[in-house]
């Protein structure tokens, strides 16, 4: 069964600092990989996704993620964090095709300090 | 605009009183699912549906029912809610790529 691990429950960074959120997945093949963001009181918004091809993918709000097959990782990065980035971030995996569920990690809560 | 709409957004109910949370999508997706979100546990799938009249249990189905009579609608039914079902619920619809989520329903069972 597919699984997703986000080892950091909570991260605090200063505004303007760089950010990296870790995500590791477990599955026999390369699944589709996603990062979602949930702002307080909001639903989940897709930040970016990886299916194939270039292993560095760009997303919305200045985020990017890099797929590393050898490490089964899909870490999310941002060069300079803004206060509005404070939210909870979820890494997720899903098998290709529309009939497979998306499995989520337990989330990383990001706090941004001025 | 691609949308998943769930209602209500907030609901407080008493133990044992049947309730239904509605979910509707306008993307003609065949695959729909319900998740619950609890602190420290992320999102866990409750039930899913691969098409009209085709539903199956997810990871945490106890205490829930679903139905899929039409492609666009996938209601979540709690026949006899209990306090341990207090949670934030999300409906999702998936095409060939990512899943699209509703805004969430915060349910409190007292």
> Shape of chain A from CA axes?
globular
Largest sheet of chain A: 6 strands, mixed
Strand content of chain B: over 45%
- Radius of gyration of chain B (CA) equals 13 Å
Please give the share of residues in helix of chain B: under 10%
Mean pLDDT reading of chain B = 95
Contiguous uncertain segments of 5+ residues of chain B: none
Name the poorly predicted regions of chain A.
none
Pattern of helices and strands of chain A: EEEEEEEEEEEE
- Broad structural category of chain A: mainly beta
Question: How does the overall form of chain B come out from the CA principal axes?
Answer: globular
Please report the total strand number of chain B as a whole number.
11
Instruction: State Rg of chain A.
Output: 14 Å
The major sheet of chain B is characterized as:
7 strands, mixed
The assembly state of the depicted protein chains is: heterodimer
* Secondary-structure element order of chain B, N to C: EEEEEEEEEEE
Considering residues with a beta carbon less than 8 A from a beta carbon on another chain, report the largest interface and each chain's count. Answer: A-B, 26 and 27 residues
């Amino acid at each position: 069964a597919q699984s997703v691990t986000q080892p950091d429950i909570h991260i605090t960074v200063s505004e303007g600092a760089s950010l990296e959120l870790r995500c590791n997945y477990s599955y026999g093949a390369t699944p589709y990989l996603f990062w979602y963001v949930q702002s307080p009181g909001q639903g989940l918004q897709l930040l970016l996704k990886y299916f194939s091809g270039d292993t560095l993918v760009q997303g919305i709000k200045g985020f990017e993620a890099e797929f590393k097959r050898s490490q089964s990782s899909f870490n999310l990065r941002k060069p300079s964090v803004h206060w509005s980035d404070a939210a909870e971030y979820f890494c997720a995996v899903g098998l290709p095709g529309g009939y497979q569920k998306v499995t989520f990690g337990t989330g990383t809560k990001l706090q941004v300090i001025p | 605009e691609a949308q998943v709409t769930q209602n209500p957004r907030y609901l407080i109910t008493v133990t044992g009183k049947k309730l239904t949370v509605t979910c509707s999508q306008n993307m003609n997706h065949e695959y729909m699912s319900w998740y619950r979100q609890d602190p420290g546990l992320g999102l866990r799938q409750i039930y899913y549906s691969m098409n009209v009249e085709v539903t199956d249990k997810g990871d945490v189905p106890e205490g829930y029912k679903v139905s899929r009579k039409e492609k666009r609608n996938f209601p979540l039914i709690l026949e006899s809610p209990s306090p341990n079902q207090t949670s934030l619920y999300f409906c999702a619809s998936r095409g060939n790529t990512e899943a699209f989520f509703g805004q969430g329903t915060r349910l409190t069972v007292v």
